[in-house]
Amino acid sequence: MANAKILEQKQVVIDEIKDTVSNASTIVLFDYRGLTDAESKELRRALKETGSDYKVYKNTLMARAFHDLNIDLTESLEGPSALAFSHQDAIAPIKVLSDFANEHPALMLKVGIVDGEKSNQEQLTKLAKLPSRDGLLTMLAGGMMQIARDLSICLDLYAKQKEGE
Q1: Alpha-carbon distance 142 to 87, whole Å?
Q2: What total of structural domains would you count in the chain?
Q3: Is the distance from CB of 103 to CB of 34 less than 8 angstroms?
Q4: What pTM was computed for the model?
Q5: Which domain CATH number covers 113?
Q6: Would you write out the chain's pLDDT as a tens digit for each of its 165 residues?
């Protein structure tokens, strides 16, 4: 039987995983085998810039945490897995990991949970192509400015027409 102290330490890690997963808007499991230390640091830096992060846990501890949260990701916990997560922008970690995987073929996305919905590799790839939150807000602002611009042109032309009469 395992030592009570070791079990307590493992339970602390399981609770940390459960807390991370529960509070994250997005989690992504990915295979990091083959990444060098420098590449791992580069990935962590890129994730931090978007308000995301990743941690490496033992698969058995992640499996227990996911089981406690009623999340079925057991089939994705084959081989080394890292857990990327974001509390703010749901798409940010997916975009960063996808872009990083394009440059570094050693990284491979496995599965994710975005806003409570399980997403496979194909869905993660589609989500990675979406504009970021800031990009969407910029597009919205541009559209709103276009409407105001068109309205001002219309009013100006109407005013000039009335002056000509």
Answers
A1: 27
A2: 2
A3: no
A4: 0.74
A5: 3.30.70.1730
A6: 568 888 888 888 889 989 988 888 899 999 988 888 999 999 999 999 988 989 999 989 999 998 888 888 878 888 888 999 988 888 888 999 999 999 988 888 999 988 888 888 888 888 888 877 778 889 889 889 999 899 899 998 888 888 887
Give Rg (Cα) of the chain.
23
Q: Are residues 20 and 33 in the same domain?
A: yes
Q: Is residue 22 domain-shared with residue 86, that is, in the same domain?
A: yes
Residue 78 is part of which domain span? 4-130
Q: Are residues 125 and 153 in the same domain?
A: no
The torsion defined by the Cα of 110, 23, 95 and 80, in degrees rounded to 10, comes to: -30
Give which of 85, 82, 80 is closest to 53, Cα–Cα.
85
Cα(66)–Cα(73) distance, integer angstroms: 7
Q: How many other C-beta atoms lie within 10 A of the C-beta of residue 64?
A: 17
Do 153 and 88 share a domain, yes or no? no
Are 145 and 98 part of one and the same domain?
Answer: no
Statement to judge: residues 91 and 159 lie in one domain = no
- 60: enclosing H helix or E strand: helix 59-68
Find the largest Cα–Cα distance for the chain.
97
- Residue 54 tokens read as 């990743």
Distance CA 73, CA 131 (A): 27
